[in-house]
């Protein structure tokens, strides 16, 4: 498989700095492409301390996405509910410190999208293998819903399902490729969203995986 399948634009292509994706959602195509190798190296270091794991929903279902976190807090789910926790429940220790490369990228992306001084205290790291999916949900465990969420897609491309403010709204499908960064704020902050089952592939940097970083201000 060739590099072109995943990265149709050369690194110096003259792409717009940002394009509106919908109300309050801005896509920065390939914004993270140059720093992707260092982001992925940092994912390896985080997951060496707090390994990827399949969380269980309050309903008792094992999630098909594998997750870990870094930063002051991490998102966790178990039979008692969803929450942000300062400790990794697997180790009983704090989550790994957010790498400087993560924080720098997230702040620059938020700034480029019109959200100055973004101060994320959590980064949820999701790992997808072929067939992995994330069903429609809202992200509403964060206390300050005025802050955006910044998402970074790495490795294999995915189909993002972008619904409305009601679960029943039929989702639009948006392709997210390696290096794409999306900033979700304003009216898009509470939309239902998910990821369609990942198609098989082989990416030069991640192999058969897709990694997604989501930066959040939880308090
Ligand atoms: C729109 N992650 O971690 S990233 C999640 O690709 C999550 O792993 C997906 O949904 C992934 O919660 C999608 C894009 C995204 C993330 C959070 C959002 C879009 C969002 C929160 C509100 C609205
Ligand atoms: Fe989400």
Automatic annotation (TrEMBL):
Residues the entry annotates as binding substrate: 75, 82-84, 141, 167
Residues given in the record as Fe cation binding sites: 137, 139, 193
Enzyme Commission number(s) from the entry: 1.14.11.33
Domain of life: Bacteria
Cofactor(s), by name: Fe(2+)
Molecular function in Gene Ontology: broad specificity oxidative DNA demethylase activity; ferrous iron binding; oxidative RNA demethylase activity
One Gene Ontology term, aspect cellular component: cytoplasm
Positions with a binding annotation for 2-oxoglutarate: 126-128, 210-216
Record-annotated Fe2OG dioxygenase domain positions: 119-219
Catalytic reaction list: a methylated nucleobase within DNA + 2-oxoglutarate + O2 = a nucleobase within DNA + formaldehyde + succinate + CO2
Cofactor note: Binds 1 Fe(2+) ion per subunit.
GO biological process: DNA repair; oxidative RNA demethylation
Keywords of this entry: Dioxygenase, DNA damage, DNA repair, Iron, Metal-binding, Oxidoreductase
Function: Dioxygenase that repairs alkylated DNA and RNA containing 3-methylcytosine or 1-methyladenine by oxidative demethylation. Has highest activity towards 3-methylcytosine. Has lower activity towards alkylated DNA containing ethenoadenine, and no detectable activity towards 1-methylguanine or 3-methylthymine. Accepts double-stranded and single-stranded substrates. Requires molecular oxygen, alpha-ketoglutarate and iron. Provides extensive resistance to alkylating agents such as MMS and DMS (SN2 agents), but not to MMNG and MNU (SN1 agents).
Family: Belongs to the alkB family.
Full protein name: Alpha-ketoglutarate-dependent dioxygenase AlkB
Originating organism: Cupriavidus agavae
